[in-house]
Amino acid sequence: MSEWRGEGRSIGAVPTMGALHEGHLSLMDIASRECDRVVATIFVNPLQFAPHEDFDAYPRNLDGDAGLLAARGCDALFAPEKAGLFPPDFSTNISVAGVGENHCAVARPHFFDGVATIVAKLLLILRPDAAVFGEKDFQQLAVIRRLVRDLDIDARILGGPVVREGDGLAMSSRNQYLSAEERAVAPALFRTLKQAGELISAPGAQWPEIRVWARKALVDSGFSSVDYVDLVEAATLEMLDRAGPEARILAAARLGATRLIDNIAVAAARAG
Ligand code: AMP
Predict the structure, then answer these.
(1) Distance, CA 24 to ligand 1 centroid (Å)?
(2) What are the chain's domains?
(3) Is the CB of 173 under 6 A from ligand 1?
(4) Which single residue of 12, 163, 196, 229 has CA 20 to 30 Å from 265?
(5) What separation in Å is there between the alpha carbon of 22 and the centre of ligand 1?
């Protein structure tokens, strides 16, 4: 990479945990469009998993992933070993207040510290001109934007739109955990978000009632439980009661042992 820098080439990074699908590969396309050279990273980051979560079971397929990346024009793959990134006495933690609180942080209190710490490390190691992250993980993207701004890390952060299956389910490495029955229920998450988006765009609509409706709709569709369905301001992730010009609905719900997240942009409320 220092050779590329010496030649004056711009470098785009796409950090991932592997088990790649079209959602990840769409970020590669954005990086290729924006930069001269693209480096992907694959690292299942232990810092962002709680002890009871699926770190050991998380799907790993390095050879298959390397083939997909090469076919998509990836110029380099950085797939470090855990020991290479974390000495036994590693003791630094980066915590992003505000955008890193609420929503996913309620059920996963250490998750965003783990994300912020590994992303800071990867950006400092690779020193890319740009790094691309998916809007699928909308709160994560907000945390990374804030981290990079607050720590003066010299990389542009780019967001890529959510890539979905034909039935609307947001692509995710964790979708492979779903049984056939759960997979049939899963598209209800996106469907419910879209319906909630239409309801909150109506004149005078108030989020508290629509939130209650959306939570019930998810459970009625077959979700085991709902972690949250929140209407937020897109940049700050502050909770809203009415749709504004940059409103977004974020949600997480569980299907058996699998936790799915999704989000949509909301059109500003129509004038009444
Ligand atoms: P992960 O491997 O799940 O950590 O994801 C790596 C990157 O891919 C993150 O920036 C995610 O937001 C992004 N990503 C994952 N799934 C999707 C998707 N369906 N659409 C767009 N980006 C995605």
Answers:
(1) 5
(2) 2-160 (3.40.50.620), 177-265 (3.30.1300.10)
(3) yes
(4) 12
(5) 9
pTM of the predicted model as reported, rounded to 2 decimal places: 0.97
Catalytic positions, written as ranges? 24
Q: Is residue 271 very low, low, confident or very high in pLDDT (cuts 50, 70, 90)?
A: low
Candidate from 14, 17, 22, 27 with most ligand 1 atoms within 8 A of CB, to mutate = 27
- Position 223 scores a pLDDT of 98
Condensed to tens digits (0 to 9), the pLDDT of residues 16-73 reads 999 999 999 999 999 999 999 999 999 999 999 999 999 999 999 999 999 999 999 9
Residue nearest to atom 12 of ligand 1 (CA): 134
> What DSSP line would sit under 37-64, residue for residue?
EEEEEE---GGGS-TTSSTTTS---HHH
Tell whether ligand 1 has an atom less than 6 A from the beta carbon of residue 171: yes
